[in-house]
Amino acid sequence: MKTIENNIYDIASDFAIRIVNLYKYLTDEKHEYVMSKQILRSGTSIGANSFEGKNAQSRADFCNKMSIALKEAGETGFWLDLIHKSKYIDDSQFESLYADWNRIYAVLIKIVKTTKNIKE
């Protein structure tokens, strides 16, 4: 059975692929270049920091990487909401991406809270 730490990397990686595809759609189809670049950076950073957390040298290092991933996830949620409210994506696109984002955000909150409560 996978640990929650391994699971976050998998779901963050899958989400990053969706974000890359969203970026391509926004730039190629909608000719939107500012918000798309922002969501590309923050949305893929979640997976990058989760991956770094897998190789952390200490619990504090792990917690730090997961906290950064959580921060990036929060930013991604903002950009996703703004892109939707700006009508660059429709309701069904937003709801699908938001569901995946919400899952990642909830898992990261759980990881960070749990890790902070464990004494080294």
A few lines on this structure:
With 120 residues, the chain is mainly α.
Structure characterization notes:
The two termini are 24 Å apart. By secondary structure, this protein is mostly helical. The protein has 4 helices and no strands. The protein has helices at 4-28, 35-54, 59-85, 91-117. The chain is elongated and about 45 Å long. The mean pLDDT is 94. The protein has one domain: de novo design (two linked rop proteins) (Up-down Bundle), CATH 1.20.1440. Helix content is 82%, strand content 0%.
Which percent range describes the beta-strand content?
under 5%
CATH superfamily, called what? 23S rRNA-intervening sequence
Query: Secondary-structure element order, as H and E?
Result: HHHH
**How does the major sheet shape up?**
none
Low-confidence stretches: none
Radius of gyration: 15 Å
Helix content: over 70%
For the record, give the distance between the C-alpha atoms at the N and C termini, rounded to a whole number. Answer: 24 Å
In total, the number of strands is 0
The global form is elongated
CATH fold call: de novo design (two linked rop proteins)
Q: What integer is the average pLDDT?
A: 94
Protein name: Four helix bundle protein
InterPro entries: 23S_rRNA-intervening_sequence, 23S_rRNA_IVS_sf
Pfam families: 23S_rRNA_IVP
